[in-house]
Amino acid sequence: MSVLPQSDQKAVYVNAMFTAIAQRYDLMNRLMTFGLDQGWRRWATKRIKQPQAIWALDVGSGTGDFLPILQQAMPQLSVVGLDFTLAMMQAGQAKREQDTLGHSFINGDGMHLPFEEAAFDIVTTGFAMRNIVDIRQAFSEMARVTKPGGKLACLEVARPKNPLVRWGHQFYFNNIVPIIGSLVGGNNRAYTYLPQSASIFPQPPELAHIITECGWHDVTWKQLGFGAVAVHIATR
């Protein structure tokens, strides 16, 4: 049974869903990715590292997993995490208080970024675009607020190319993850939404085309995690 909302209901649905799972979100991410998700963020960060960068923005930041990774790689950075769901940022703020790095959160919509043009040197987004109503508008907004020559890193789910690996991944994603989500995250519906939203999300070549149409160039991608994750890198 589909749990995917209609387009005009998606924003409210996604906000309520992430509010419900905010406190267990990080634990679930580590469990269902076998702890690999942070390594994927570090891999992406190495590809967009700029010694002269001053400002970075993480769109759909959630609890802010990208923020310390960016700043550890580029200590001179001021990093802003933007998210649609207040509860996710509140959960992330508790983590941020455990370190002394200069991170900040702002509540906002990825389709209407509350920043001036060319405000950031680097923009990242990790596993958030599936939850945006209009990804073209979101990528266009990220281009608008990025300086010429600035970098984008986008992490999203993908389908493995190898048929056997793809079958195993789909079985795990569609059958095991919802069970883990019910037992650990306390929300079977949210972790049923995850594989269902992934199944209709553009695959890497199509996503690269969309990113290019939205004002980015030199768009490349690489699939990690046996093909289950795609990292797109682009230049403004």
Automatic annotation (TrEMBL):
Its EC number is 2.1.1.163. One of its GO terms (molecular function) is methyltransferase activity. It comes from the Bacteria. The keyword Acyltransferase does not apply. The keyword Lipid metabolism does not apply. Pfam families: Ubie_methyltran. It is an enzyme of class 2 (transferase). Pathway: Quinol/quinone metabolism; menaquinone biosynthesis; menaquinol from 1,4-dihydroxy-2-naphthoate: step 2/2. GO terms for biological process: methylation. Keywords: Menaquinone biosynthesis, Methyltransferase, S-adenosyl-L-methionine, Transferase. It catalyses: a 2-demethylmenaquinol + S-adenosyl-L-methionine = a menaquinol + S-adenosyl-L-homocysteine + H(+). S-adenosyl-L-methionine binds at residues 63, 83, 109-110. Methyltransferase required for the conversion of demethylmenaquinol (DMKH2) to menaquinol (MKH2). Belongs to the class I-like SAM-binding methyltransferase superfamily. MenG/UbiE family. HAMAP family: MenG_UbiE_methyltr. This is Demethylmenaquinone methyltransferase.
